[in-house]
Amino acid sequence: MWRATFQRVFLIPALGNRGESTMRIICFGDSLSSCGGERGRYSDILQDRFPRHEFVNKGVGGETFVDARARFDADVLALAPDIVLIEFGANDWWRDERPFAAWAADLEYMVCELRKRNVRVVVLGVFGLYRNRAGQRVPKVYGIDARAVAYRDLEASIAARHGCEYVANIQEDIIQDRCGWRDRNHPNEYGNRCVADTLEPVLEKLLGEKALPARKPTLHTTRDFWNEAVALAPDRPAAVHGDWRLTFAEADALATRLACGLRNLAGCEHPKVAVFLPNSMEYFLLYWAIVKLGGAIVPLNTWLRTDSLDGIFRNVRPELLVVQSERDRDVLQAAACLPELKLIRVKAAADASGMTTFSTLLETHGAFTEQPLPEDTVSIIMHTSGTTAAPKGAVMRHVDLIFNVMATINAQDFGPSDVHLLVNPMFHCTALYSSLPAAAYQKTPVIITADTAPDSLLALIARERITTFLTVPSILQRVVALPNLKDVDTSSLRLIAYAGSPMPVGTIQKLQLHFPGVELHNFFGLTETISATHVLLGEDAEQRPASIGKLLPFVEALIVDEQFQPVPAGTTGELLFARENAIEGYYNQPGKLEEAVVTVNGRAWFRTGDLALVDEDGYFFVQGRKKDMIIVGGENVFAAEVEGVLLGLPKVREVAVKGVPATGVRESLGELIKAYIVRDDPSLTETEVRRHCHARLPSYKLPHIIEFRDALPRNPAGKVVKTELE
To answer: I need a labelling partner for 351 at 20 to 30 A (CA). Which of 6, 169, 313, 445 fits?
Structure first.
């Protein structure tokens, strides 16, 4: 429904329909001209800044000057441009197939042909100096050598000789900015904003006019994301929940009034607001109202028990708590430890004395002025979901969320035409770290639902023309089991992504059968990492179902032994992440995170406590927690490896493996391997399971005991609690 209503922020002249004062500017280059995704190339951004003129992108990835010469007449001269931006040379350098003088000769040929036709030329380089974090211009150290320097000098002399404008390095402001890149070599949309900034003064000079301040690289907080969406796309849809639909402008008006009400009730400018709600439009508005205030949202898992909630309240001490009604007794009982805590209810109830209503807050009027918001301000206090320890409040700052959004877009290939289904609980990382801020950044809608029934989800996908569906394997297992799946129109879907637990191979195969052409992604991350860390693409999911995938750009990991020394590929050890990929710390627990930080070869790394290995091709496999290792007759057996094999059985829905004490004649083994299996097909027998394992595991890793169950015990975050398995 929404996709057809998307509008461009600025009007772009149609090709071949120029007015007298309209200039045609061709961006002619390789992947550095074509990268950035839908509407994310530097030419797209320049188009928004100079809307009176026509920008034509003729960038083709992987090309050298040889390729450029071959298509120069058709792609450039035939279009009768007024200005041409030429950007080549990087691939000539990478391939090293011809001397740099040949690259320069090709450049000069094209410049001469254009100047003969009175076309103004801008020569764009990538080998020039860049600005480091201190603002100093320094030489590049990556992607450069003597050949590149020599070509750069020739490039500059050609531009000067023919009266061309010259930019020595179009990436000068993003070399050290990890948020500006799609991968190590290609800028993303945000990086291309910086490229456009570098080119803007040159075009202002050539066009004789000032650029509009559109899509500037000045987004340092998620509030900046939101404000830009409201300013540039006020009439685009922002959120849908049932029949309640809001554009960005409408949502902002409500969020502003809500922010005023929250501030007045809390009695402070930057309150901490605990939210105990299911997925809803109210949750969406609260999230952005708190962001506007520069406060911190404290999402509470609605499955948590009173003792865990009590611990959270005593540690975080929020000023406000939002619940559905007085019937949320567990959380209200826990909140009683803070007599000063102000309560807000969303639903009307028979007896809600002492609670402010959500609707009352939405009626708040008065001036609202946004306060300064440094990028290192805490935005979210997200509590961990360990199966044994009390929850700890992971601190996510705005600067962390900016990186998270860029990593999410890289992992899921989100774009400005997407319509996102938000069914993951909004108290989880995926929703608040990734889905909501990414949608605001790209000015796309989220379709919110708390209903996880598979038929309801498919009906919602069909009605709203949803394109992305991020969820957990258990929901997808129920989806593929629907008897009428083929009768539902899911043609709008382009991506199904899952995380949280291993996906059975049988479910992957059914998804591929029922959703042909839809990308399948398995993604992985921790509450303590500031972004997703790995993604497994669909083509690899069937061959490596137990893998969490490969590392995302700008995420670094290490597998180490007990002495914290790196181990070879294929060797199991503890999984570490670079310190800069982890959160700053736990709320009100100084030094707690540092207890899990070690130094390896002079660099700080965060210990996850997970056992993992990485193969020769860079695919990671989590083998389980260190405490999940089973020792059978002196041999180490990793529960996750056995679980992965069992999940390869199409008739298996879920499985958990743990060690149990060996008794009787097998007492000398120390521990036995016990598998707890939830069947997807009741016809599955123990004999089938054993045959399957015998064909895939060495003898000491074979399950000794197999128990079929109707369900596995889980904690409030949905993780299997193996201590409750007997």
So the answer is: 313
